[in-house]
Amino acid sequence: MVTAAxxxxxxxxxALKRQELTERHAIAEAQPGQSGPSVASRIEVADxxxxxxxxxxxxxxxxx
Length: 64
Known about the structure:
Blueprint: H1 2-30, H2 39-60
Helix pairs in contact: 1-2
């Protein structure tokens, strides 16, 4: 039961982080006059996405 509650909390946290990334992306696209996100921010987003994938795999019990 504790494991199920922990997993539900973990999934909620991951959903929150995904939402934050989506909102950042939407805000960056909505700002007129800018050429787009910088290279550094693209690298940061890619790194965060990779971390989320790894954490989801760990939560699902998949061996990396």
